[in-house]
From TrEMBL:
InterPro entries: NagB/RpiA_transferase-like, Ribose5P_isomerase_typA_subgr, Ribose5P_isomerase_type_A
Binding residues for substrate: 33-36, 89-92, 102-105, 129
Record lineage: Bacteria, Pseudomonadati, Pseudomonadota, Alphaproteobacteria, Rhodobacterales
Positions of the catalytic residues: 111
Protein name per the record: Ribose-5-phosphate isomerase A
Keywords on record: Isomerase
Keyword Ubl conjugation: no
Gene that encodes it: rpiA
Species of origin: Roseovarius bejariae
HAMAP family assigned to the protein according to its UniProt record, in alphabetical order: Rib_5P_isom_A
Function: Catalyzes the reversible conversion of ribose-5-phosphate to ribulose 5-phosphate.
Catalytic reaction annotation: aldehydo-D-ribose 5-phosphate = D-ribulose 5-phosphate
Amino acid sequence: MSGDLSPIDKAKFVAAKRSVDYVEDGMRVGLGTGSTAAWMVRCLGELVREEGLKIKGVPTSTRTAELAREVGIEVVSLDEARWLDVTIDGADEFDGNLNLIKGGGGALLQEKIVATASDQMIVIADVGKEVETLGNFPLPVEVIPFGWQTTKSLIEEMLVSMDVLGRDATLRMNGERPFVTDEGNYILDLHLGRIGNANQMAMVLNQMPGVVENGLFIDICDVVILGYGDGRVETRDINEGTVQEDRLDFVESDNLFTDLGD
Ligand SMILES: O=C(CO)[C@H](O)[C@H](O)COP(=O)(O)O
């Protein structure tokens, strides 16, 4: 079965597999959205079903909620859980300070609320997500549908005044219609190229009327687990200042991958 996976999927899988080591019995766990997070949800489900791990999962999207239930994880709302031990999620980009762009899957609002309500946020990513400066990936901004074209013009004017390289905002589509988030909002993708001051950009965007949230996650992520297509895994902890490397090996078995340890 491992032969069917592309190197990028293998990289996502090993990062996800390593991340569930952070989850202990009794924890309340934020469950991210996207293809990497989906691997993590499947790995957690396996631990729940086969090893009796007891956790409560708070999903960041309806998609993740469906998958979590399907694999046997008890799903609760954030209001029921109130505060979480850990959130594990993917990212579209991360930099050397573990600041992120998220929202490629359109779930940035719930993802940011859930991550911020967690003792620890762990990002799982394939090696292609690492950048020197954020901004090559279009920055998702969730806006309310009312007056979205005015909001778009205001954002573009703001980008000109901030002297940002790219200034185009495009409405995310789902076929012929605007993409609608779980909260009933639209997404504007900002094609910036490079975000010099991500903190300032995040604050300015969130002050604009009509903007609900932006996809910049500044000082939220604690750990990035980076997967490679050959099974290597690198764990970077920004608080501890540590980098650990190890390896998961691919085997043709039910479990797909075996932990070889150090
Ligand atoms: O932010 C997200 C969803 O809103 C995802 O975490 C991000 O888009 C990464 O997705 P993938 O793991 O599929 O590459």
